[in-house]
Amino acid sequence: MKILIIGNGGREHAIARSIYLSSIPNKIYAIPGNPGIMQYAECLNISSDNHKDICNFSIRNNINLVIIGPEVPICNGLSDELEKGNIKVFAPSKFASQLESSKSFTKEIAYKNNIPTAAYKWFNKQDRALQYLDSLNTPIVIKADGLAAGKGVFICESKKEASESINEIFSGKFTDNPSLIIEEFLNGEEVSFFALVDGKDIQPLISAQDHKRLLEGDKGPNTGGMGAYTPTPILTNNIIGQVMNKIIEPTVSAMYKNNTPYKGVLFAGLMITEKGPELIEYNIRFGDPETQAMLMLLKSDLLSMMLDTVNGDLKNTKITWKNETSLTVVLANKGYPLNYKKDSIITGIEDAEKDPGIKVFHAGTRLENKRLIASGGRVLNVTATGLSIEEARKKAYNAIEKIKFKTKYYRKDIAWRAMN
After folding, report:
1. Burial track 201-240 (b if 16+ CB lie within 10 A, e otherwise)
2. Tell me: the pLDDT tens digits for 60-76?
3. pTM to 2 decimals?
4. Tens digits of per-residue pLDDT, 147-166?
5. ∠373-377-379 over CA atoms, to 5°?
6. Which residue among 128, 176, 203, 249 is the one 20 to 30 A from 265 at the CA level?
7. CATH topology of domain 325-419
8. What would the CATH number be for the domain defined by 187-316?
């Protein structure tokens, strides 16, 4: 079976590894891939934005399944284009991807289907948004209505912060036609909930907790994610039942009834409040870095699960997990997510991976004269498994000490909520 993975980050490295370990014989290609993915796949020098070349390659090489990792190609309609060429795709359609690309689209579905979520107002005029701000108390949440690589959400403790965030979004930093939503601040604990969806049937996956802020103690600017761990103690069976009944099932059902079925992985960002779980946002792909932690615990065959998803056969799919804990720490270049230093030489990965419970996924690396270079904002994802969160955490931070590059930065408190 021929598999093509689209993407070049740590998430795609983790997916490539799991597909490589599948019991279904396969040959993996990656566009564009990275030095870590090269261990499992043939990497091709094609941009993930180049839909025409991706479609031509897939048809010419009889690709059996395309797995799209990042949100941008999905939201730009790559899965629709591939399906026109009779290529099976693990990713939703462009229409269904509005669950991530349009905050207002998701809010509308939530309100029409009584899905618990924060109260909000949508604005496409800067002056109106600033005027509305005067009538509110802080803290409030301001979100760019569109894709922003995880950096378009602002939790504002003061009116000054809020007006600065509104001005930043309307400066065109994220999109050419900016709009935003101003949302009620929800108090509680945030978790990432994942489910496979075949259009109609749903199979929940293990949950995780991401650490979006740059600095320890969840301070500083939002990032694409500085670390994650799984499973999350706060998601009890009772709360998982509520999430499925009140949030995931009504969303999937609404999309199905609209003749725009959702297929792929659905990732709900949730706030567990005193009232119960509430929807913060949807993402239409696997989380990064949550996937790196989650897939280390997967006992079932990921490729088989993905094929069941695209073929509409999820109803009888059984998914099993190791009874362990997994934790991922992101190693970034200093200065990320703003102007970061890069191009340091990386050493020590082989040494770090000598412990069988450690896997280092490549997120922003490149090879230059046979040397590994730290080229992206998020560079490596050090993932450790253990029988307890304490064990996994200790192993991960021990491994990090062995990995060297001049501009290395990481948070030292990943999984602090679970430790408390």
Report:
1. bbbbbbbbbbbbbbeeebeeebbbbbbbbbbbebbeeebe
2. 999 999 999 999 999 99
3. 0.94
4. 877 678 888 999 999 999 99
5. 45
6. 176
7. Glycinamide Ribonucleotide Synthetase; Chain A, domain 4 (3.90.600)
8. 3.30.470.20
